[in-house]
Structure of Type IV pilus assembly protein PilC:
Amino acid sequence: MAQSHRKRRTPAIQLYRFKWSGKSTSGRKLSGEMVSRSKTEVGTELKRHDIIIRRVRKTSSLHGRGRIKAQDIAVFARQMATMIRAGVPLLQALHIVTESIEKPVMVLLIQQMINEVSAGASFSDALRRHPRHFDQLFINLVEAGEQAGALDQMLERIATYKEKVEMLKGRVKKAMWYPAAVMSIGMGITMLLLIKVVPQFEDMFHSFGAELPAMTRMTLHLSELAQAYWLHAVGGLAAGIFLLRRAARRSPKLAYRLHFLLLRLPIVGDILKKSAVARFSRTLATTFAAGVPLVEALQTCSGATGNKVYQRAVMQARQDVATGQPLHFSMRMTNQFPSLVVQMISIGEESGALDAMLNRVADYYEEEVDNKVDALTSLMEPVIIVVLGVLVGGVVVSMYLPIINLGTAL
């Protein structure tokens, strides 16, 4: 399905930023900037607003370089919701949003959608032709909003959902990168000492003519290894990470195994579990509240968990729901979801307020992730001192031991 959408995608276009000046029919001087494909289009647009053109000058070209982030899509959804709620027609709203965006690659994307909508496509169809930037959840909710005449509400819901998910992702990334950064800095400083500082001491130790302490000999040996193989080690590590990531993309079994191992890590694994549950709950609440059938909503949620283990668990629950089983029972059978989540979803199903209960679950686990990340940050502060003390302090002490011993002997 996605392949067919890619084939129908509108060819890339070239846009430019123009500065213009002119005056209104009453004689008041006006000026501004406009993004368009040519001076002719700028002139046509200005004349449509009864502006007498004095000068139009091309200032720069907009290239499709760069990367569209989830935050850009959330801002776009929020701006479109505001425009449509104010009664601005869809095509005009897209034009207005384009003028307010500074990121060239995002401007190009919206301009392509403007051309598609102008050619007769619906907003959801235009989004569907850009699957790299708009996921199935976004498209489904926009389509539901178009059919129900509540597009502004759906776009607002999408924006809120994406903002909360990105905030949660940021917390998880902080939990993952903070320990890695600490260890990398510690190892980097140690390698610098072994490669640049220790060799300076080695020449001095040879002049002593005495047997060196075991700790010093070990450090000198590590220094020799570091000087000879540090480039191989860095290259091997980079190549190993690259090959592992590539293999994980190609092998679903390997990707599942890696995600399974990540969930077993101390502290970080618990953060990843709670994050997956929060993202699942938030996504299901958003889609279910928009009127998407539960089986279809679970299909969308499986990819939103961010973890292969929970993705498989959601798909298993979906199969059970499709055969007529209640959602809470299907989730319990996967043995992946906490009992608290299963119980709250059971209450939501019985009371007819499943979306509200799912939002409460998401709020609870997002707060849990936030608390865990704060606890990890606090825990890492003493670990930083210990790691740097052992690595850096060990090298420094081993270099001064012979000097201390010599001073004692004298």
